[in-house]
Amino acid sequence: MTQPTDVRGERLHTARSLAASGVPVLPLRAGKVPFGNCRRCADNACGGRPNMKTSGPCTCPHPCHGWAAATTDPGVINAPTWVRAWREATAVAYHPGGASLTVVDLDNAEAVAWARTTLPTTQTVPTTRGEHWLYQGAMQSANAVRPCVDIKSTMAYARWLGPGTGAMTALPDVVRALVVKEPTAVRPTAVTVPALVGGGECPHRTPAYLDRGIAMAEQRITAASSAVHATVYRTFLAVLSAHGRCGCLTDAHVVRLFTAAQARGESPRHCTDAWTNALTRLGL
User: Considering just the CA atoms, what is the radius of gyration of the chain in Å?
Assistant: First the structure.
């Protein structure tokens, strides 16, 4: 059934208003899903849209690539192909991570009750079955972090259901912890390094220097919001470049790095592969 003109106009007006405030938007079709890719972009043949601040390698004028289509560019939002999509849309969606936001999607009354006793109060938006709790700050998205609770932030979209009520607060650690998997016990690849040429004393053996380097490496891995595989490999490579030839590293140091990587979702196998590849790259 054709939607009334005022409803279509209201959705486009909402999209323009959100975009003007820095919130990337996209239209949703029936079923609360994004519009499918056009022929040119089918199977990501165009290269995709990797982030929200630029269009990436794809210059397609259609609202393609799901959450990655979200934009704040009025020229895109008001383009003919997008206007046609707004006419067919059933809802306005936005990319929370692109606006430095995180949505805790509570999908039933039990989940809402859990949040009220567990999470810091913040801006809340009623949904059909529960509530959206909005926090200031972006993080990794994840589904089913607990029964009927999803996290929507980076690389995800959420329906715009209105501004809600209450004052938005900063993203708390208790929410970030919901997506952190318990690290599996790992056995890091043994590191065999050659002795220093001439038998001199290792310049890195001061505990403070080494501990600071390992702590910085852990922080780099933990802070990765995307391209986690690549970040882990580059971090392992940097650590081995600094300490791999002088005998500083111990199994305890490597376990710390592997644990940080696994907390970001890497498997023990991925950790071992990244470590081995870094050793090979450096000729160790």
Answer: 23
